[in-house]
Every structure is written in C-alpha cells, then in structure tokens.
Amino acid sequence: MTERTIDRLLELRLSAFRAFGGEETVPLDADVILVHGPNGHGKSTLLAALELAITGRVEDLEEFKDDYPRCLRHVSPESEETGSTEVELRYRSGDEALALRRRIQPKPGRKKGLEVVGLDGDEPAEGAKYFFEERAYLSQRGLGRLLELYQKPDEESRELPLVGVLRKLLGLDRITRLDNGLDAVLDIRRLRKKSTALQRLEAEEKRLVSDREGWEERKARLREDLHRRLEEIGDLAVLAGHRPEGLEVAALEADTIEKADLETIASTLDALEIDLDAVDEALARSQRLRGAVDALRRLPDSPEVSKILAEIAGELEVEASFEAVAEACEGEETRCLERRRELREAERERLRARLFLERAAAVRDQLLEALAQENLFEERATRLQEARDRFKAVRELAKEVHTAAIEVEGRFAESVFVDRLNRFANEFFGRLAPHEPFRPYLSKPESKWNRLRVSTGARLGESEENAFEQAGAIFSSGNLNTAALTLFIALHFLEEPAAKMLVIDDPVQAMDDVHIVQLSALLRAIARGDQPRQLVLAVHERALFDYLRLELGPTREGDSLLAVEVDRVPGTTRSTVRHERDVWQPDQVRFG
Amino acid sequence: MSARVRSIVEHLAGNGWTERPSPLRVGELAFDDFAALLEGPRDEHQLVLVLGPDADDPVRCVRALVRALERTGSTRPVTLILPSDDPDVRAELSKLCRVLTVPSDEVAKSLRSLVPLELPEPLEPVGPVDKALREVLGDPLGDPMVEALLEASRESAEKVEATLLEFFDRVEANGDEGT
Predict the structure, then answer these.
(1) What per-residue string of b and e applies to A100-119 under the rule 16 or more CB within 10 Å gives b?
(2) Torsions phi, psi of A507, nearest 5?
(3) ipTM passes above 0.90
(4) A residues 394-433 near B, CB within 8 Å?
(5) Peptide bond into A570 cis (omega under 30)
(6) Mean residue pLDDT across chain A
C-alpha cells in the first residue's frame, strides 16, 4: 500500500482561528495561490492554519508553552464568546479528494488547558506531514533559522539541523545505527564489557590454563615421588646383585619412569624368598651333637663311649676328644645362629622392598592416570580454540559491516552534499542572483566522533583559494537570504516529495528589486517546470502582490492563480478573506 | 539582426522559446521596434522582446505596448532584454516590465531565469542506503548475520547491538553442541 501523500491543496476552512473570528473558506485549488494582507491582519495566520490542519501543530507557536494552543483560538474585544476553533483541509492524494479536520478543545477529564485533536478525517501519512513541515512550508521564522546555517560557525558539539534532514532523507539514520550498534567490535575491551559470551569464553580459557598448570604440577610431583620410591627400593641391600634391568631404567630415566615394569620387579623379589630350613636344620644338628657330647661326658669312660665320641668327632672332622668335639659343636651352632640372623634380616628387607614396590605401583598408577588426562586437556583446548575462531569470524564480519556502513555514509554524504544538493542550490541561486560571482556551497562532509560536519560556505569558481567556509563572511544579507531560500528549495527537490507544494511566507525578506524579479521568474519556472509544484506565497506589499500576480499568472490553457486578500472586517478587529481566480484568457496578441 | 541579438535568440530558441515574426500586434496596434520577438517557453504565452542596440526610444515604445496589453486585457508577462546596461533606461523600463541586461559574454548566465527548470529525477526515499550497503558488502551479503544486522538497523542502534551479541552467543552455543 502506498503512503498517503498530499498532492494538491484544494480548500481550507477555518473558524474562530486567531485573527479570523468567523468561518472562512479559502479556495486553494490553483497552481499558484498568492496571499496578500497588511502586517498583522492574518496572512501568516492562514498559512499557520494550513500547517495546523496538515501536521496538527503550529511549530513556531508551540514554543510558547504557557499559551499554546490557547493562542490559536480567536480572541476578540468585540465578543467574549467565540465559537469552536476548527480548521479543515480538503486535499488531493493521487486521484482521491480527501479531507481532515482538527479542533482546539479542552483536555479530557480533569486536566487543565486545551489540546489539538484530529477529528474524523483522512490523515496524510506521517512522512507527508514531516515533509510538509520540514521541506514544503517555510514560515518567516523558518527562513530565519535557515539563514542561521549560513551565519553561524559550525559547532563541533552538534550536527547542523541540515545534516539531520539529510540523515532522514537518505536513510543515513540506519548507517548511524549500524555505526553505533557495531561500535563495540572495534575495541576488544568494549566488546568484553558487552558480550557475556566473550566473558564466558575468556573465563573458560583462563580456567583451562590454570587447570593445565595444576595438572603439570601434579604430574611432576608424582613422577618425582615415583622416582624417589624406586631409588629407595634399589638401595635395599637385599637386592644387591639381584636388581632387575627394568628397575635400573626406571630409576635413572625420569621420562620413562612411568613405564617401569614394577610387576616384573615384584616377581623377582618374590623369587628371592629366603629358605631358613637348611640353617635351622644345621643348627638343630649341631645342638643335637652338642647334647650328645654333654651326655657322653657324664658317662664313665668305656670303649662304647670312646667309640661314639670317635664317630661324632669323625662327623665333625675334628680330633676325638670331648673338648675338641664340644668346641666344634659350639662353633657350628654359633655360625648357624649368625647365618640365621642374617637371613632373617634379608627377608625383612625383601618384604620391605615388596611393600615399597606396592606403594610405588600405586604412585605409578596415579601418574599414568594423570598422563591420560592430557587428551582431555587437548580436547578442551581444541574446542576453545574453535570457539575463539568462530568468535573472531563473527567479529570480523561485524567489522566488515561497520566499515561498509562508514564507507556508504561518506559516499552518500559526499554525493548528496557535494554533488546533488550543491547542483540544485547552484541552479536556483544562479537564477536568483545570476551576476553574483560567488556561489553558496556545502562542504564535503567529514565524519568525526560519529557526527557529520559540513560547512555552508561561499566560493568563487572551483579554486580552493577562493572558497570560504562561512558564507556570512562573503555574502550581503540579501544574498544570504537568497542562499537560505535556495537551500530550502534545493532540499525540497532532492527527493520524491510526499507533499507537492511550496508554501512560503514572505519569500522576499531583505531582497532588492532585482532579486525579486529573479525570484518571481524562478517561482514561475517551478510552477511550470517538469516537476511542477503548487505554490502558496504570502506577501505584505501591495505592489509586490500585484507584480507577482502578473508574473506568476496564467499563461496557457489550464493555468490558474488564486489571489487571496486578507483584511479586517470594517469596524472590528476580526479578519476575513476574499479571493479572485485568474485563468488564462486568449488575448489579442498576434505576430507578423 | 545583430550578432548579439542572434545569440540571444538562438539561446532562447534552444531552451523552449519560439521566435515570432515582427511586428507584434496587440489588437489594432503594431509594434515593430524590437530586434526579435519570442513566445514561450514551451506552450506558455509569455513574451520576450529583444531591443536592438539602435532602438530609438525604448521607454516610449514599451510603455505603449504595456498599455495596449492592459487595455486589451492581456495578462502575458513581458520580459525585455537590453543588449547594454544603461541604468537610467533600465530603471524606467523596470517600472513597466521585467528587464534583463545581457552582456555579450554572459548570454547564458543572464538568460537563465527564462530557461525552463529541468531538474534531475528526485532520489528514491530511503532506498539508496540499503542498496549501497549491499553493493559495498558484496560477498558477505546473504550471510544470516549480515542480513540480521541490516534488518536491525531499521529499528535502532540498541537492536543492532543486541543482534550482534546474539550472534556471539550463538558461537558459544555451537561450541557446546560440538561437545
């Protein structure tokens, strides 16, 4: 569905509106509407009524908050009671004739004051209202504000209102939103503050580093422990001469310590179990022999005793005397006891070694378990790196969009300001002041701190040497006025209008006669051009009104001009309007 | 017709005006004091009268013409073109009609106000930025994130930022899926 535009004004009705006490009907269905009236009689009021009808407000009066919208009602010394204040506009949008009404009435409920309300009617699109207010209607104060653009130096702290118009016009607001919305991707610190996902990712990365450090420490600790335990085992005397090869390697090479085959060592130790039976048997034998010798010694000498002694001495391989045999038995017994003690000590060490080995095996198992975690760390690191890569890719893409947005902003701002808008303004200014050597121009905009800055300057030809950043430094006040007016008209023509009319209150402010002549020619060219606009112009000088009526009057079949006169009702302070329609009449002019 | 007058006529004829034969007749009266007559532009009936350098009494002549037009009820705007700038003559004539002086080296500039306004086609509202962004972006276009960001830019900067952060969140979510 296309938005409802305002293509032609048809009629304005107003009642009890400011200077107009009664009901007035002002026809507007013409190519040119000229409104004339002495100062203070209500010609600007007619235009304000038109603005109120279209936009629902009168911008220039709105700032007087204490009195607005009360000041829109008719107040008269002649009568205390005034009727309801209403404005009604009939207009054409496409092929449809539409109407809308607004009324000033008390606020609802217990609220104090008045408000403007839209009554049943055909509201134009918001875009059409905006266009009318910003680029179709130029009040006297509006021209003054435009003039300020040429006179005041650009302030760095804010953008010119003109830039705001262009932002809206070109959709540069979208660029600004992209610029501001993607700003964080340009600085990782800002991004870190904004993105909880990044915060979590970085926290996870830190955790991984910390976990890995802890793991490395534990691994080193276990390896050292294992190393120490294996050394202890190796130092045990019981293993001297029986140390297995695996134990040697494990004890000496830290990086393979976890590979130590402790089970083989255990088997070796198990094989070393000491047998005490033989020594116990020898001890028992020597004790038995010594007992036998003691028993023989107590017997009287006899051949039998000598024979037994000789046999024992022969078994002990000593001389056959009681002393020799007793000494031999005692010596054997002492040796057996010594051997037995040695063997028991060895067994204790073996058992201790076995215990150490079991403990070492437990440490080794812990070490192996820790080593197995390496894969988990690798997996975590890989996963985080992949997330980091994806994060980087998103950031890079967002940066690309940001860069594109800035490029487009620059390109657009330049093409519109430097090229199109300057071309329009030049065209109009050239018509209004053809012999003025300087031309107003808008500088190439620069983006700084997310703001576009332009200067409204003046230049002579193309040379930068003859370019001045502030037109106010070059132009007379009349030409500044002309420059401001041409900027307004240029902005109006920049895009497809949602309101196809130019409504200008007193366009000739501070213009001399020559400029007025040129202005009327320009307005005629606009009214009759290839993109014609309906013109509504208010002037207060009678001579100028007559002049414009002739200059902008009909010059071909179908042309029309409405001359609207605003005046006071005799004997009152109320204003009223009368009007005349001019149309083309074939005349008596011939050639040749 | 002098070279100056010829250049004026040619310039206007090339810009929508039609040269008319002399004399100019208004009712029963004929005016043949003008070096050239033009009507236009296009289908309009404005008059452009070019005075020759040796016109006898231009003020008298133009005054008579304007009166004749008024008397016969004609509302045609009249523009008088002077080949040279005599301030006194100009001042007198300006009381009667629109007057343009045309120095020999500034024909086009001086006649600019008579040339119909031909303006470039107006810009499409809002459209160009979107189109230009897509042109500049090139390859990444079509990426869901780029499309989402462009869409969000229709609303607000906050929406753009929220969309961006959402895509960062998705990065994290993808990682979780990976596990």
Answers:
(1) bbbbbbeeeeeeeebebeee
(2) -70, -10
(3) no
(4) 394, 397-398, 400-401, 404-405, 407-408, 411-412, 416, 420, 423-424, 427, 430-431
(5) no
(6) 85
